[in-house]
Amino acid sequence: MNTFGKYIRLTTFGESHGPAMGGILDGMPSRVQIDRQRVQEELDRRAPGRQPNTSARREPDKVEILSGITDEGLTLGSPIGFIIRNCDAHSADYAGYQEKFRPNHADYTYYKKYGVHDFRGGGRASARETVNWVVGGAICRQWLETFGIKVSAGLIETNNIADTASKGDSTGAIVSGLIEGLPVGVGEPVFDKLSSRLAAAMMSINAVKAFEYGDGAKAAEMLGSQSLDVSFIDAATGKVSFNANHSGGIQGGISNGMPVNFKVYFKPTPTLMQQVETIDAAGDRVVIDPKGRHDPCVAVRGVAVVEAMALLAVADLMRIQWHDNV
Question: How far is CA 118 from the centre of its chain?
Answer without folding.
Answer: 22
